[in-house]
Amino acid sequence: MDTLTQNQLCADGITRRYGSFVALDNVSIDVRKGEFLTLLGPSGSGKTTLLMILAGFTEPSTGRLFKEGVDITRRPPEKRNFGMVFQGYALFPHMSVFDNVAFGLRIRKVDAAARRQRVMRMLETVGLTAHAHKRPHELSGGQQQRVAIARALVFEPDLLLLDEPLSALDKNMREQLQAELRRIHQQVGTTFVFVTHDQEEALALSTRIAIFNKGQLMQIDTPEQIYMRPASRFVGEFLGKMNVFGFDAQREDGAHTVGRHGDIVLRALSCAGAALGAKVLAVRPEHMTLHVEPPRESGHNVVAGTIVERTFQGSRTALAVRTGSDAAPAHTLIDVPLGHPVQALGREARVWLSWCPSNSMLLDA
Ligand SMILES: Nc1ncnc2c1ncn2[C@@H]1O[C@H](COP(=O)(O)OP(=O)(O)O)[C@@H](O)[C@H]1O
Ligand SMILES: [Mg+2]
């Protein structure tokens, strides 16, 4: 497909400085038409700064922004036709839900009949038809946030920018609204650019995730690819739990790289062309099996350890296992289901962890 039509928005080499501080560092990112793109990263990583640059409220220090191939770097926010939803709902407290959603249309002189039709259609989309007459204070936080979404979408923007819209809500409400947001996105088909610092939220909602750290774009891909094939230790550890072992990569053996973790030999999936030497071998906890006796399956990586912590979590128990030697210490996390034989063992029980080499990733240390 032609990249100009496929990419609705292109940020090209965007840097934003505040004095000598670099809030965004040479970020290039494409937003594809109709996708749900999530900007994910720790607090202070530059997510809001990028969203504000896309919206036009902040100017980049260098770099350019294109909308469907047209340079809009200097175009004011009101001429971009992007909708915005912020963390605080900022609804008009004295106006009904209906009037809150209708407000912008009234300013734009959309006539009353068309206004009514568009507002009611939008309230139906966000599931608030029965609440049209209420004031914001009569609504729950989640309902207020849905009003904010309706208010942003009623203009039929080309792009909806959302900055941590769910982070003020409690866990249940947040999960409910995530499902709602996904449904709304599918129903209206508008491109969403969504900011969050919540990894699970990003995994649950996104077509693609862009991961930021210290102003830099670390990786952008589908949730599955980023989770299964993180490009760096930072990304792997930021998105989900990951166990890492110091690893001295020594030789290639078919599809695997063979190396040492202290005095143990381990194997990892080879990365084509990667250099040997000091690395980390990373494994997701769900790819590891916990044994109460030395396992016998051949061809698997096996590491012995001692349980140092148990956290009961209902259907599962989270274990922390100290593995390795003083020379190559590692702290490994793994969950076991209720009734696992390890639960019959004492506090500092000796255990073994095994996993298939194909599930180990080699990352730079
Ligand atoms: N107007 C500003 N003046 C100075 N520093 C700023 C300004 N806006 C943001 N920053 C800094 O830029 C960095 C990125 O901020 P921000 O984009 O808000 O991060 P995030 O949304 O990922 O938490 C932070 O360290 C923040 O303090
Ligand atoms: Mg922010």
Q: What's the structural domain tally?
A: 2
| Weakly predicted, low-confidence segments | 1-5
Q: How large is the count of helical segments? A: 9
Rg calculated over all Cα atoms: 25 Å
CATH topology of the largest domain: Rossmann fold
CATH superfamily of the largest domain: P-loop containing nucleotide triphosphate hydrolases
- The residue fraction in helices comes out at 10-25%
The major beta sheet can be summarized as:
6 strands, mixed
What is the string of SSEs from the N terminus onward?
HEEEHEEEHHHEHEHEEHHEEEEEEEEEE
Name the overall outline. elongated
Taken as a percent bin, the fraction of beta residues is 35-45%
Overall average residue pLDDT? 91
The chain-level structural class is: alpha+beta
Total beta-strand segments: 20
> Which CATH architecture of the largest domain?
3-Layer(aba) Sandwich
Ends distance: 38 Å
CATH C-level class of the largest domain:
Alpha Beta
Function: Part of the ABC transporter complex PotABCD involved in spermidine/putrescine import. Responsible for energy coupling to the transport system.
Protein name: Spermidine/putrescine import ATP-binding protein PotA
InterPro entries: AAA+_ATPase, ABC_SmlMolc_Importer, ABC_transporter-like_ATP-bd, ABC_transporter-like_CS, Mo/tungstate-bd_C_term_dom, P-loop_NTPase, PotA-like, Transp-assoc_OB_typ2
Subunit structure: The complex is composed of two ATP-binding proteins (PotA), two transmembrane proteins (PotB and PotC) and a solute-binding protein (PotD).
